[in-house]
Amino acid sequence: MNDAKFITFEGIDGAGKSTHLAFVADALRALGKQVVVTREPGGTALGESLRNLLLHEKMHLETEALLMFAARREHIAQVMAPALARGDWVISDRFTDASFAYQGGGRGLDRGKLNALEQWVHPHLQPDLTLLFDVPLDVARARLDATRTLDKFEQEKAGFFDATRTEYLRRAAEFPQRFRVIDSTQPIDAIQQQLRALIESMAG
Ligand SMILES: Nc1ncnc2c1ncn2[C@@H]1O[C@H](COP(=O)(O)OP(=O)(O)O)[C@@H](O)[C@H]1O
Ligand SMILES: Cc1cn([C@H]2C[C@H](O)[C@@H](COP(=O)(O)OP(=O)(O)O)O2)c(=O)[nH]c1=O
């Protein structure tokens, strides 16, 4: 039986997604699942080239949205769809909710255009579970400042992340059946306990 599931990790930069990705993958493997861990933008050779442009070059807002979806089209064709078809679990560090949150919320691109791109690129594919790591902006900012050199998105101002976070939370309310909002101000251990329980219930 193909019990493959598609799980996405979302949140503003510094919320803690990457910290928990490997944990969830390991927990699933311990339950006997084959797991593919991937990320967006990226996940394929072409997608990683597009990621490099997207994270470092200035471009028109619509170019940015189109390239995000171009990378996604390739990612679905080469990695996600084949993995799900053979029964693997797919865990992606970001997916289309990020386009709605960053290009839509953060940059103000019309949601209708994003809906059209989503309908074009993946009319039938949606995550089974989307983990939204939610933190106030000042917490995320302090975590980023402490740990890394900032890319194009991470250098955006508070207003951008405020709008990004608001759009993520709006989508979580719109699609409650697949979203789980994780209070990412909790200690890492507490979050992982919660994630373990979720994964165990999902993996049956
Ligand atoms: N719950 C947490 N409590 C304290 N620090 C955290 C927590 N989650 C993540 N961090 C730290 O914050 C930084 C950014 O986390 P990261 O997982 O890279 O965020 P993201 O992938 O969402 O941008 C890392 O140094 C990480 O160790
Ligand atoms: C997938 C996606 C990512 N992004 C942005 C969000 C992030 O700032 C950036 C890269 O994501 P991410 O992999 O989370 O960055 P990092 O490795 O630094 O944690 O791309 C969008 O703006 N739209 C999208 O559709």
From TrEMBL:
Going by the UniProt record, its keywords in alphabetical order are: ATP-binding, Kinase, Nucleotide biosynthesis, Nucleotide-binding, Transferase
Name the residues that bind ATP.
11-18
Q: Coiled coil: which residue ranges? A: none
Q: Name one GO biological process term.
A: dUDP biosynthetic process
**CDD domains (UniProt xref):** TMPK (cd01672)
UniProt GO molecular function? ATP binding; dTMP kinase activity
Q: Which reaction does it catalyse?
A: dTMP + ATP = dTDP + ADP
One GO CC term on file:
cytosol
Q: Where is the Thymidylate kinase-like domain?
A: 9-194
Family membership: Belongs to the thymidylate kinase family.
Spell out the HAMAP family in the cross-references.
Thymidylate_kinase
Question: What's the protein here called?
Answer: Thymidylate kinase
The protein's organism comes out as Oxalicibacterium solurbis
Query: What is this protein's gene name?
Result: tmk
